[in-house]
Amino acid sequence: MQWTLVIPLKPLARAKSRLADTAGDGLRPGLALAFAQDTVAAVLACAAVRDVAVVTDDVLAGRELAALGARIVPDTPASGLNAALAHAAGVVRATRPDGPVAALNADLPALRPGELARVLDAAAEFPRAFLADAAGIGTTLLTAAAGRELAPEFGAGSRAAHRAGGAVELPLSAVDSVRQDVDTGEDLRAALALGVGPRTAAAAARLLIPGQ
Ligand SMILES: Nc1nc2c(ncn2[C@@H]2O[C@H](COP(=O)(O)OP(=O)(O)OP(=O)(O)O)[C@@H](O)[C@H]2O)c(=O)[nH]1
Ligand SMILES: C=C(OP(=O)(O)O)C(=O)O
Which residues are phosphoenolpyruvate-binding (predicted)? Predict the structure, then answer.
């Protein structure tokens, strides 16, 4: 099964505000870009993935992620994460209506291609499915089979929202790298412990993180 992944990324200057106590204003945009680069590189190395669309209005991120091989879809004027994802899924479906689509967060710097392949293979059994994040409150991945709407409900409490909306929660173990999103300094330490990609490793080395 060959998936198209849709990855949302807001403008880097506004990204990762909950990391403000870990990374100052001068370093945070670069850290957010590094997360996205390592996420996209791991996705493109996944055998189950056919292509990647990043929905973003950030010019620098768009250029850097296109250089890795992602298609860039400009954000929709309707603001917000779910509007951006629904818009990008529609753009993808316009050119490829018969393929499965998955939305994946851009902040998974420890992502391993083999673990992502296991998650996507499991999701292929269901019309819509999702993977809960490491905290057990949110979602890192939401999938829709061909012909099904993605119907994203990312945001606070999205695990419960996706379940209530009829998506099947994937009860997988040993896919920590797909669950480990990075919103806080504690999340970043957890991702570093799992092992992050090279761009995040370089960006994190510029931060003073206790225990690193
Ligand atoms: N294209 C697009 N992506 C978005 C938008 N809002 C959020 N995202 C992305 O969606 C994912 C989760 O977003 P958030 O948790 O709201 O933002 P964040 O930058 O990760 O972190 P915080 O600023 O701490 O909330 C991240 O990959 C964001 O870059 C949006 O309006 N448009
Ligand atoms: C948007 C989500 O992630 P985050 O933890 O980055 O807010 C979510 O879990 O639905």
Answer: 139, 155, 158
Residue from 6, 7, 10, 12 whose mutation best tests the ligand 1 pocket (most atoms within 8 A of CB): 10
Give residue 76's pLDDT band: very low, low, confident or very high (50, 70, 90).
Answer: confident
pTM (2 d.p.): 0.97
Q: 144: CA distance to ligand 1 center in Å?
A: 21
CB 117 within 8 A of CB 123: no
> Per-residue pLDDT averaged across 50-60, rounded?
97
CATH topology for 3-204 is Spore Coat Polysaccharide Biosynthesis Protein SpsA; Chain A (3.90.550)
Atom of ligand 2 nearest to the CA of 133: 9
